[in-house]
User: Fold this.
Amino acid sequence: MAEEKRFAVLIDIENIAPKYIELIMNEASNYGNITIKRAYGDWTRQSSSTWRGKLLDYSIIPMQQFNNTFGKNSSDSALIIDAMNILYRSNVDGFILVSSDSDFTRLAATLKEEGKVVVGMGESKTPVALRNACDYFKVLDLLYKEANKEQGGKKTQKKKSSKSKQKKDHDNDLIETDEAEASTDLDTIERAIISIIEAKGDEDNGMYIGTLGNSLIRRYPDFDTRNYGAGKLSKFLEQFDSLQLTKDGDSTFVKLSNND
Assistant:
């Protein structure tokens, strides 16, 4: 089995909204093991406060850069210098650059010239030059809109059913709440599985079940099939109508079902 690639995620917080953080980290996990996570900006500014609450949740290291010139993005030079230091001093196979700023175009091109995989993430306003300088580019606002469209109906229904349970049986609801806090809910896990297979799976055979399991753990480090009453990943996956399991010798593969 090939060794998993190592990536550095570098985020320009002055050019990216904090609402994208979950999407950013989920997309990043599709490419490999994220060994370096840093966010650049002037953290003394009031406008950075919404980002500060996200750092602990995702173990992202804040990199301080004071804004010495009014109207200029303070994080540009700090991120670029750091990226070059990581390039020559750290054992990474690629970089995930999160910004819509065209000033990072030369950086992306240089990292590619040095044989690194470069993944760009930014909004629709990102210039074509920066997009083309990357090996892959993810348009965050479009992905965010699509994800919210898919999740909206299920979230509304879940809130209604949760309120109903609280009225019916308060004691049982306390137990269920404790279990929910211990594990990621099944709807979220199912959506993650589907997105992973769509991003990394083969069109005909899907993907090896072990690879899927590794990808799930990268997204949710606390993921364990035993939390859901299943001893094995294959048993856990059988409950989802959206998935189909197939055997090839001793190996098990999972793909999206054609029934939905």
Observations:
- The chain has a mean pLDDT of 84.
- The chain has two domains: 6-142, 148-256.
